[in-house]
Amino acid sequence: MPYSRESGFLQNLVEDGITFNDIGRDAVEKLRVSNPQSLIDTDFEYSLQASKWEFLTLANNFPGVYSRANEPAFTSDQIVSLIPSGPGNRNLTVTVNILPNTPFQVGDSIIIKESANTTFVDGAYIIIQVPSAYSFVVTTKSPEALVGDQKTAYTAIYTGGFYSNSYIPIVGISAVAATSAAVIEFANPHGLFITSPIIVVDSNQADVPWCGSFSVSAVPNDYRVIYQTLTGQNYITNTLLVPSSGRVYARTEGVAIHRFFDGGIQINPGTSAPNSRTMRQTRNYFKYQSGKSMQFSSGVLFRPVYEVSNVQLITENQNDSTYPYYDFRISTEQYHGFATPDAYRKGVSITTTGFTVSGGTNPYNRVFQVSKVINSKTFEVQIPVNTVYNPFPTGDLTPGALAV
């Protein structure tokens, strides 16, 4: 679109048959683009992604915890255990076998990855208690009691940090009499929604049931939100729990998983709360083998296909009158990002393909709605049990794939 001095406007030039020689096109026939602030060579896709990419996840434009380093502070070999503790066994006592470079402190942020419960244990947290130099306690986002050691052979812990001035100023946090909830009063409109993840911090209080990781359960107005604490009993009066010196952060749960086998990336905001965003961008300057031609080709798949790693048909819950369904449990190779349906949202629709059975009518290849989320890689759908699928073909099931 050249500029015309005579008219003072940009001119559109359209002509059939314009082509570019090979040096001007990349492997997928896109025009090569040279930009001195972004020089990226595709041969480097198998490197540490953090060396050339930046990742940011936001909750209504509030940033949360970020990872301070590419490498974990504690690997699985250095982690002794992740044991449920505290009120309702929803806290987690983390023990390591080496001293940290910087002693654990209440209020420090950490990031847990690849635990036994990737849905409710993996994520960013703040330390609420330090029992010893080798251990610390965090409040998980689990809605129910955790059972057993949450460590796996792949668990890693990263040190985190809060972005400068990213907290949401508060007037105070008070108990709600006759309930186990607390109400946060903000100094300005908060912009939070029901199910928005938050972190409540008070440097003057350590192991208390109203500090830690929570989710907003009600939004009375633009200046107040309510969340359920871990007190285990109802408050008697509207007692002030946290003064204005306390801090509330948006707890961002976004993830960016590098697909090392094809150079791609899977990003997910990690929550169904409105206005949650996940962004991934190139760093200002990156240079590698700059003698080659320079290009930037990118593509986004908003309806991905997930490879199925395992399936299980659960029949014991079926009842002809009260629950005429079989639960079909599906595990995927990738993080699916689905949310458990509730009063505010229905289950996501998926299409399953490629499932085969040894005989009879095949009930597995169809459109389903997710009925339950087990963890970040496993979920369930309901298959109706009726005369079409009777007897139900439960044997010799071959896994297939699914698309959102």
Kindly summarize this structure in a few lines.
The chain has strands at residues 53-59, 62-63, 65-67, 79-85, 91-96, 109-113, 123-132, 135-139, 156-162, 170-175, 181-186, 197-201, 212-221, 224-228, 240-242, 247-250, 255-259, 264-268, 276-282, 305-314, 325-332, 349-353, 367-375, 378-384, 401-403. It is mainly beta.
Radius of gyration: 25 Å
Give, in spatial order, the strands making up the sheet with the most strands: 3-9-6-7-8-5-4
How many strands, what sense, and barrel or not for the largest sheet? 7 strands, antiparallel
Shape: globular
Poorly predicted parts: 36-44, 287-293
Number of strands: 25
Q: Which series of helices and strands comes N to C?
A: EEEEEEEEEEEEEEEEEEEEEEEEE
Structural class: mainly beta
CATH architecture of the domain at 305-403: Beta Barrel
Percentage of residues in DSSP E strands: 35-45%
CATH domain class name of the domain at 305-403: Mainly Beta
Q: Tell me the number of helical segments per DSSP (H or I, 4 or more residues long).
A: 0
- The fold-level CATH name of the domain at 305-403 is Elongation Factor Tu (Ef-tu), domain 3
Can you give the helix content as a percent range?
under 10%
CA-to-CA gap between the ends? 39 Å
**Overall average pLDDT:** 78
